[in-house]
Records
---
Amino acid sequence: MKLNIKELTLKEFAAHLVERKEPSYRAKQIWQWLFQKGAASFAEMTNLSASLRARLAEDFTISRLTVLRQAVSRDETKKFLFGLSDGHSIESVLIPESKRLTLCVSTQAGCGFGCAFCATAVLGLKRNLRASEIFDQILEASRSLSHDQRITHVVLMGMGEPLANYAETVKALDVMTDTSWGIGISPRRITLSTVGLVPQIQRLMEETKVNLAISLHAPTDELRGRLMPINRKYSLQQLMDCCRSLPIPRRKRITFEYVLLRGVNDSMDDAIALCQLLRGIRCKVNVIPFNPHPGSPYQRPDDAGCAVACLGEVAFQKSQLDRKTTVATKAACHTFGHVFRVGYFAPLGAASDALPLWAIAGAVVLAIGATALAPLVLNRMTDHGFRQWTRAIIWGVSATYLMRAGWLFWHG
Ligand code: SF4
């Protein structure tokens, strides 16, 4: 039986070519045909000899997904139903937004995590997708685009839990992100969403550079346990401890997704609890009004605008909160107050929690103060050598402070 060529890694395929007395660099050329030019047959690979193309066709197949259905909504969002070789089907959604074209891909056929509000949960888990079935969604969706369009972003938020299919998901990410032979989407433009499998989250952040999104949907263990059974295995405390310990680069944030369910998780108390839960985590909150589906007991909030505004306020607070050392939050209806404690000496010390703008302002004041005071101090000194030393120290400290503040500002 022929092997699907996309199931091999570049290294494995290069070894295969060497065994057949072909130069190993051909592997990269063939990979470019598959992933950059979207070749669907070996015959299209015109920079290979006819004999090599014939031998490849004898040994391998090139997998493709079958487009079972395609639907385009009024806002141009395109939904694909793809058929797999064993009869199962998966969904992908192409979402155009100003300059972005985002594809939401699936990582499992069905899902076994049983989240109470999720339409996919009803299907149960059919099986994990192979790596090729994950990245083939990008290749197949790309075929539906015009020649000047390109998928710019990918979110792993379709059917299934990507981290429950860890090895194949990471293998697919390698193909998606490689720029020399792969699809070439920057990991900064790829977001993986998880229900919160703590050990795999840590591993993913160590092994890849993709963005992390966590399906949170509730601010307390009691409520989250009801909505998401996974919370009984990994509590909110464990999940938040994990998030706080992740090596997230300064310019990145974790996204927390929060689906608003009427009368379940959309109160102001929930908003406050959410804000307190996320304290100290550099993140943003993505608030999504529930999209009702047949058979679901949940509903979209009555006044979605109001509830979203409240929780949107939380998201805004979080964007501010990320840059400070502590926050105290009290809330009346629609009103949140904060107490900031800013590390104004941070440019010289542990800077990670400081507000860069405050730090810059502090540095400027110090520099002006040093400029104004230095002549006064120096003129009172009679010893020339001592005066020189004092001048050097004042300017040295000011310059260090300024440089550190500049670094903070630049690196956010
Ligand atoms: S993990 Fe995701 S796909 Fe699975 S049931 Fe929960 S929300 Fe749905």
---
Amino acid sequence: MTRVRKVQHQHNVHLKEVKISHARVDKAHLVRSDAKVQKLNDYILRAKEWTSAENVKRIIKKYGETKLDRMLMACENIIKVSDDTGLTKGELFKIAKYIETKLPYKVKKGKAYLRKEKTGLARTIEYKSKRAFIHLKTHGVQALGTGCHKKVTRSIMYAAHKPEVVANCVGDKTVKAEGRILQKLNGSDGVVKTYAFSTHKKKSGRKVYSMITKMYNAHTVRSYEYDRSHLENRNEAAYIARDLMLGLENMHAKKLAHRDLHSGNFMVHRTADKVSACLIDFGQVVSFKKAKKMAPKIEVARQLVTPESLLKGKHRVDVRKIESYAVGCSLYHLYFGTTPEWCEKMKQMRVSKLNRGQKKLLSEELSRQMRATIDRRNEELEAGNKKYKKLGAVILKLLDPDPKKRLSPNRARIMLDEVIKEIESKR
Ligand SMILES: Nc1ncnc2c1ncn2[C@@H]1O[C@H](COP(=O)(O)OP(=O)(O)O)[C@@H](O)[C@H]1O
Ligand SMILES: [Mg+2]
């Protein structure tokens, strides 16, 4: 081959190679763009019920696929945990988009409470304790409860992977005080779990306080007094009783008395395989020292006055036993299906209007009635279903008229743990 022909040949070979590699690149490019189109189509299909195709394209272009993925995941998971948010899918998606994209900038500017009127979203959102909350309030959904000082509504604790429906308790200064107590107690078993405390001004300019807590999904223990059908068996009462006693034990370890221990302040939570309970409403909490000075009415409810607190001067009352008695009265209702018979009478009494002698007489009379009822119930237990006997016996021991014989929250909790152990070993 002459030199010229050799060069020409090499050039031709090179051209051929370039052509082939171009074709390869084109093919690879096509495959890649095919995959891209496919992925976009998948996103459009997945987002169909939440937002338009145009919006999907816009979001991907502006914020990237990962952000879009998070928004969609959050929406999908939110409706999994709450079938009723009162929001349309479009509204929920807009909120998720805002939280994923704009909220971080607002937070940097120090804005944590973002009213729906300002953001144009369907609900007010709030950023607190490193979490975003969507406040559902009462727009198309019912409140969880209302009391004298506070209103409790649902909120969504936002997260792409594990969002949660939570309870938002909003109210006046009593909620602020309650928040302080809960901060002291937070993390304690048997006490409502809190996620955030905050404050904001209402449209009227009035300052309000809020606490965001775990939402207990199975109503209060009081609701079981009206409708026992959803208390599936009395074993469940053992778990409720144990958790409430544990809550008391933990409060008492900090020398705090709850003072408002009625069944409307005991929340129940149910999952597929577990029942649990906790104490709520810390608006009346005082130290043991203060509580002692309040005798005979340490508990707010009139029917919960104990025989020993009517006897002034003879001994110092044990706040722990007064509180285990108060919870015991609700547990009695849960177990036997009626309030302790003597409580009905105590409801009518105005103990503060009685003189010392009258209080003494009342105390003796109350003790007698309690003893007689407890003896009768113990006989019933002996004759009745052995399966639930132990639980019944613990509950009755919480109501002993003699505070020395009455179980403290700690003793009761230990005994209830044993009852539960037995239940679980038989499963
Ligand atoms: N964490 C919660 N989960 C579900 N419902 C709740 C929760 N906290 C409060 N509630 C509901 O709100 C009602 C009022 O709450 P509570 O704290 O007892 O307020 P108040 O001090 O006004 O009595 C409760 O009886 C209960 O029905
Ligand atoms: Mg209450």
